[in-house]
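quick q for whoever's on today - can somebody do inverse folding on this one?? i tried earlier but teh output was garbage lol. tokens:
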């Protein structure tokens, strides 16, 4: 099992990767946990270099670029040069960050929606997000997202709540909600719908945690001109796509603007 950790003021903050199939990694547990449990210190903590024992995923890379600063992979059999530590199995001067995944659901029902109904629901969820004038809630841009399977079954939904945790974007919450119901990756033929173009972190999660990117469709309403939304792994020809995709996946047209693109 891989681990991710950072050091700050003599403390080691660390997290382990999931034991089974789940839409998270050791890096995402660490970064999300820091924002969740240490909100006042989070910005200072994530400026430290994160170390990872084990392989980095597209999702790890996306989360680092959006919500942290830098990450270095350390082979399992090597010591950490700056501190002399190996990956901390459970050091006494450490704080372990637990998973923030929702609980698996045993009983649930899912409606089947047409694309038009899904677009309307996504707009409705966005409209119902409370608006705040205070500086604290500026990160809560009104964004809503849905996950549908091939038949139009509503597997997951989510809204942005970035003021509480910078990583809690709508698309990530929707994908995790779908996992809580199915325990599986996004199925072949799935559609991710969002009112805003997914950022590099959410795009990477959708790409990495789906059965087959060639059978994934992403529809968004509004373009995000910010630095994290302009060029993601879901966009053809970007650095993220060229780095993580196989040659056969380089030209995949996955993402489309406009709720009516494929209606």
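ok took a stab at it. sequence:
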């Amino acid at each position: 099992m891989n681990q991710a950790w950072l050091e700050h003021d003599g403390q080691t903050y660390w997290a382990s990767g999931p034991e089974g199939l789940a839409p998270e990694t050791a890096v995402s547990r660490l970064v999300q946990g820091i924002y969740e449990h240490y909100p006042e210190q989070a910005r200072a903590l994530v400026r430290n270099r994160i170390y990872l024992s084990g392989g980095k995923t597209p999702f790890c890379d996306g989360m680092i670029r959006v919500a942290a600063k830098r990450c270095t992979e350390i082979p399992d059999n090597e010591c950490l040069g700056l501190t002399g530590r190996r990956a901390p199995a459970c050091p006494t001067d450490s704080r372990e960050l637990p998973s923030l995944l929702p609980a698996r659901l045993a009983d649930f029902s899912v409606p089947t929606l047409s694309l038009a109904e899904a677009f309307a629901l996504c707009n409705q969820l966005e409209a119902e997000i409370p608006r705040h004038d205070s500086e604290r809630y500026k990160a809560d841009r009104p964004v809503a997202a849905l996950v549908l399977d091939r038949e139009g079954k509503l597997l997951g939904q989510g809204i942005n709540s970035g003021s509480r945790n910078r990583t809690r974007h709508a698309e990530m919450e929707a994908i995790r909600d779908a996992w809580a119901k199915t325990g599986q990756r996004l199925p072949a033929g799935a559609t991710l719908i969002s009112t805003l173009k997914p950022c590099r972190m959410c795009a990477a999660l959708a790409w990495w945690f789906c059965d087959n990117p060639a059978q994934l469709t992403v529809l968004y309403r509004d373009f995000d001109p910010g630095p994290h939304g302009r060029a993601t792994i879901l966009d053809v020809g970007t650095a993220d796509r060229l780095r993580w995709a196989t040659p056969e996946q380089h030209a995949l047209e996955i993402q489309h603007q406009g709720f009516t693109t494929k209606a």
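fwiw The chain has two domains: 3-88, 103-258. also Residues 115-127 form the longest helix (13 residues). so keep that in mind when u check it
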